[in-house]
Write a structure and sequence with these properties.
mainly beta, Methylamine Dehydrogenase, Chain H, 4-stranded antiparallel beta sheet, globular
Length: about 475
């Protein structure tokens, strides 16, 4: 079997969709990338009816990609007449973003009343039935008239969606998000079918100073919603919920102060006091300076309407950093061990770095990290030696401060990596949590070996953390585990 090219280099960066109803018909999302000034292709939506031998531009010429949105095309109808794409008429997406649609195969396009979809799905047999999920919403919306009117699907009041997938057959609708939900009456009523399945991703949090408790957050901070936080005073044997609602957790350099959302705790999370943080309802991430007590940063917003705030007095007062880069869902901040470099992973907008505590930012050579909290590990001996977890490209390594990247995946059984962690006592030892289990490297990521024994058959590892004494903890759908007898 041999692959051969079916498009010129100009279209090679597009996102491909294969028609389910018409063999040989392909669609390509080649919208303009506002971050790529060197692009030479005419942006737009392309179609091929001869398996990619020839292509025609069918609409949205010059429209821009929207960061944070999945870039695939949603195509439905027996004749592929209905096509849906999230796009923007401006390189600053938040000023002109929309879900665009055509009902005549691309001859004419219109903007739907639904402004922004991070994920779009369509009924392959009935193109008027389209589903839209937005990162800032708890539930997906559905339209049965090609986007003219919308209704919200609420399978349960107790569980929200952070990811969204769809299966549609007859009257049966299956939604996969934080659980699995069935409806056999077109979404009017729902049944939960999640017994035995893992729920939300679990994110472990550990104090870099080595002090217990151990913390666990249920769900990612990719929406401005509260996520449940648990604390364990005995290394994971017992867990108790923290009363305060919020998202993320940062540990101050003093070893005792915690930051979460717009609150601060000085007793390990038992009690909390409010901080006056600007824009507190959409705080997504926090990071403390590793050596200077009282210095903390928080991220707020999404896309171009994004802000980084900093406080040098334990959150008593805040300063906005006006040159913040755009943020995608679940952005994270990372300090090196000495606090000299600040890295920011903005998911759909790539990576950035700052050498002046966030006053100015420079873009890294672009890669797209996973969405968990521990997606970047910095060598404590060398702050330009980085390890990044990606979905589909394995572990990406940089030895020049994110100016270039290369894959180090020898022995890695899954390229869908959720988390990466370095042993602070033995920096040559690195751990990776993947959709195919847990892995360890004893040679700085050059080679990897599987360490799944004792995980009760769990093949997905959400997060891995290593404390200052080298104790390793892993979060899986089956619970929290500690690595023994290394």
């Amino acid at each position: 079997m041999t692959f051969y090219p079916i498009s010129d280099e100009c279209l090679s960066a597009g996102i491909l969709h294969i028609s389910l109803s018409q063999p040989g018909t392909l669609f390509l999302n080649n919208l303009v990338d506002p971050n790529n000034a060197e692009a030479t292709c005419q942006g737009g939506i392309y179609r091929s009816t001869d398996s990619g031998v020839t292509w025609e531009l069918i609409g949205l010429e010059g429209y821009y990609k929207v960061g944070g949105a999945e870039l695939e095309i949603a195509v439905g109808g027996i004749n592929n007449d209905f096509i849906y794409v999230t796009a923007s008429t401006s390189p600053i997406p938040e000023t002109a973003e929309s879900l665009y649609a055509t009902s005549d195969g691309g001859l004419t396009w219109y903007s739907t009343v639904q402004k922004y979809c991070t994920t779009t799905r369509v009924n392959p047999l009935d193109g008027k039935e389209v589903y839209c999920y937005r990162w800032s919403s708890d539930y997906p919306d559905v339209s049965f008239d090609a986007g003219k009117t919308w209704n919200t699907l609420i399978p349960t009041e107790t569980i929200t969606f952070q990811k969204f997938s769809l299966f549609r057959s007859g009257n049966l609708v299956v939604l996969g998000g934080d659980g699995l939900f069935f409806s056999d009456d077109n979404g009017k009523t729902w049944q939960v079918r999640s017994a035995g399945l893992g729920a939300r991703p679990l994110e472990l949090k550990i104090n870099p100073k080595g002090f217990l408790p151990l913390y666990l957050q249920e769900g990612l901070c990719n929406t401005p919603k509260d996520r449940i936080l648990y604390r364990s005073p005995d290394g994971g044997l017992r867990w108790e919920a923290v009363a305060l609602q919020g998202c993320d957790l940062a540990f101050d350099a003093d070893g005792s102060t915690l930051y979460r959302g717009n609150a601060r705790s000085t007793d390990g999370g038992l009690t909390w006091e409010q901080m006056v943080v600007p824009n507190p309802h959409i705080l997504q991430s926090a990071m403390s300076h590793p050596t200077q007590p009282g210095k903390v940063f928080v991220l707020s917003g999404i896309g171009m309407s994004s802000y980084v705030y900093k406080s040098f007095d334990f959150g008593q007062t805040w300063e906005v950093l006006i040159n913040a880069p755009p943020l995608g869902g679940n952005p994270r901040l990372f300090y090196d061990a000495e606090g000299e470099v600040l890295y920011l992973t903005a998911t759909s907008y790539g990576l950035y770095y700052s050498y002046d505590e966030g006053l100015t930012w420079q873009p890294c050579t672009q890669i797209f990290t996973s969405r968990s909290d521990q997606v970047l590990a910095i060598d404590p001996r060398d702050n330009i030696h980085l390890f990044a977890a990606t979905q589909g490209n394995g572990i990406q390594v940089s030895t020049d401060g994110c100016q270039s990247w290369q894959a180090n995946n020898n022995g890695l059984g899954s390229l869908f990596v959720n988390t990466v962690a370095i042993d602070p006592k033995h920096p040559e030892t690195i751990y990776a949590g993947t959709d195919g289990g847990a892995y360890i490297s004893f040679d700085g990521g050059e080679t990897w070996g599987v360490i799944n024994d004792g995980l009760l058959g769990a093949t997905v590892v959400y997060s891995i953390v290593v404390d200052k004494d080298g104790n390793v903890y892993a979060a899986t759908p089956y619970g929290i585990f500690r690595l023994e007898n290394r």
